[in-house]
């Protein structure tokens, strides 16, 4: 088998290309004389002024862009929806022992075309206006990832309102804090959350916002004086109203995105429309290296939409004319889903996730292998030979077919790119994904305050424990702190960022804003970074 593999190895053109592309960031300008490094940028924007960067990337709003895309893509599928029909419990064998397991039985997939999606976005926005909301009002989004979340967000924007995102599992204290600070007149939530929301507001002596419910409330629930509307009711009510003028000011506030934080109260990051557009355009340029804008591009959405990584990913895919298939972590694979999981249903070309997800997938593949015997020896040999081949810039079609086809089917069989963010990805998991799944694995770095967009590895850059080169929408400098200095052999220091994706500060928190959003437009991340010789 090793001989057959060796005879069929060919050049991996993607690896060859990335190794000849040159530096991934360059220094610009002169030294400042302060205890900090020189400014670094993507080579593509090294000669631009900051005004030119804003003019190129910050202009317009997403609702205007998506309206145009919906007209362009028309009948192409935009969103795939799989409702849960029922749940059952069965006994299964786990390591020789019987264990009760819950299975989710999914309904046949239904789709929204781009034209239908836009009509629903406008209809929901009109529905908000019909219950008394006006431009400038803030609307809470307190729900798990599903198609109604993103449709609602665009509906909010069509009316010149601001979305306020709150994690569905944020916790009572943080939830109360966000409701009070943002002074929400209305919240969109799941029907099952209504009882808890009303009780939480009563317990903390705050007025409960009007509630717009996705899915049904528990039967017989007494909501008292709280106004409750069904999401579908507002869409139906707004469907006959004319489309309003779509907001076009990139400086207008699009989102207040509450971050969970590790200590203290949550912070509401103020994100302008232009910030979101900058992130989508900047990250989209890097994604162009991964994908080829194929008509059948697809993406599986399952991460929290209240997190900037998932929010950016879904909006990028819509601007590309891709289909977003909505799933959730419990139904991604066939393990708990019937008749099969979301990955098999939607066959994504690109997947985004956090290290915990990739570690779980690695363990799932390893868990299906015997601890010893011929099958294990074959897998281990294939793994080692493919790993060495990739280092040499070679591809292994023989091992891909004979050994790795089954693991790749776990992700739907078509994945070309995996993007990891949110936390550091271990070198072992990174390498495992690249070898076994036969796709590019790109780690990225960004924060809510940078709209997720700072750096992402290039397509088929095999480096591990590395977050790639700068995107063209941001510039960086390192500020000396403690034991990390810009004058070290490999420059190190606190990462400071500036550019059109840098957000507007923290809502109603001037002291926290002043501490992190510095003069001359720099944002102090609080993270330490190191610049490698290739500019990553």
Task: Indicate the topology.
Blueprint: H1 2-8, E1 10-11, H2 13-18, E2 26-28, E3 39-41, H3 50-57, H4 62-73, E4 77-81, E5 84-94, E6 97-106, E7 110-113, H5 114-130, E8 138-142, H6 147-158, E9 162-165, H7 172-182, E10 186-190, H8 194-203, E11 210-214, E12 228-230, H9 231-238, E13 253-259, E14 267-272, H10 273-290, E15 298-301, H11 308-319, E16 323-326, E17 337-338, H12 342-346, E18 350-353, H13 355-367, H14 374-391, E19 394-395, H15 397-402, H16 405-409, E20 417-420, H17 427-437, E21 440-445, E22 455-456, E23 469-470, E24 475-479, E25 492-498, H18 510-516, E26 523-530
Parallel strand pairs: 4-16, 6-17, 8-9, 8-10, 9-13, 10-11, 11-12, 15-16, 18-20, 20-21
Antiparallel strand pairs: 1-19, 2-3, 3-24, 4-7, 5-6, 13-14, 21-22, 22-23, 24-25, 25-26
């Amino acid at each position: 088998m090793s001989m057959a593999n060796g005879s069929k190895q060919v050049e991996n053109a993607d690896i060859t290309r990335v190794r000849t592309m040159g530096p991934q960031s360059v220094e610009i300008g002169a030294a400042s004389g302060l205890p900090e490094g020189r400014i670094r940028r993507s080579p593509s924007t090294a000669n631009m002024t900051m005004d030119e960067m804003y003019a190129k990337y910050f202009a317009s709003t997403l609702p205007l862009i998506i309206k145009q895309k919906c007209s362009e893509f028309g009948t192409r599928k935009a969103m795939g929806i799989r409702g849960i029909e029922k749940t059952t419990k069965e006994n299964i064998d786990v390591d020789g022992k019987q264990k009760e397991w819950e299975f989710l039985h999914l309904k046949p997939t239904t789709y929204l075309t781009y034209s239908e999606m836009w009509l629903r976005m406008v209809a929901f926005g009109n529905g908000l206006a019909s219950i008394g909301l006006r431009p400038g009002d803030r609307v809470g989004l307190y729900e798990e990832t599903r198609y109604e979340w993103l449709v609602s967000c665009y509906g909010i924007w069509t009316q010149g309102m601001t979305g306020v995102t709150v994690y569905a599992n944020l916790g009572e204290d943080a939830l109360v804090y966000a409701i009070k600070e943002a002074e929400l007149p209305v919240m969109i939530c799941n029907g099952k959350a209504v009882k808890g929301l009303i009780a939480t507001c009563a317990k903390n002596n705050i007025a409960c916002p009007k509630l717009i419910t996705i899915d049904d409330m528990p039967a017989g629930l007494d909501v008292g004086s709280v106004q409750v509307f069904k999401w579908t009711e507002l869409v139906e009510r707004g469907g006959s109203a004319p489309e309003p003028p779509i907001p076009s000011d990139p400086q207008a506030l699009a989102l207040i995105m509450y971050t969970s934080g590790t200590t203290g109260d949550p912070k509401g990051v103020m994100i302008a429309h232009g910030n979101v557009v900058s992130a989508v355009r900047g990250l989209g340029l890097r994604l162009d290296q991964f994908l080829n804008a194929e008509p059948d591009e697809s993406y599986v959405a399952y991460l929290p939409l209240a997190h900037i990584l998932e929010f950016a990913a879904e909006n990028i895919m819509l601007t590309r004319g891709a289909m977003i298939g909505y799933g959730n972590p419990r139904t991604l694979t066939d393990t708990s889903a019937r008749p099969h999981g979301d990955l098999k249903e939607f066959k994504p070309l690109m997947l985004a996730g956090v290290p915990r997800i990739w570690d779980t997938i690695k363990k799932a593949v390893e868990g299906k292998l015997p601890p010893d015997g011929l099958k294990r020896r074959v897998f281990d040999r294939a793994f080692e030979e493919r790993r060495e081949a990739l280092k040499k810039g070679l591809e292994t079609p023989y091992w891909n077919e004979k050994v790795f086809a089954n693991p790749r089917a776990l992700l739907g069989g078509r994945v070309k790119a995996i993007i990891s963010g949110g936390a550091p990805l271990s070198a072992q998991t990174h390498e495992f994904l690249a070898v076994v799944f036969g796709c590019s694995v790109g780690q990225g770095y960004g924060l809510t305050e940078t709209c997720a967009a700072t750096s992402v590895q290039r397509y088929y850059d095999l480096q591990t424990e590395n977050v790639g080169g700068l995107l063209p929408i941001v510039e960086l400098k390192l500020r000396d702190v403690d034991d990390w200095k810009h004058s070290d052999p490999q420059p190190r220091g606190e990462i400071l960022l500036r550019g059109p994706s840098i957000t507007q500060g923290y809502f109603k928190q001037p002291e926290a804003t002043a501490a992190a959003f510095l003069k001359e437009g720099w944002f102090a991340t609080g993270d330490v970074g190191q610049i490698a010789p290739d500019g990553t």
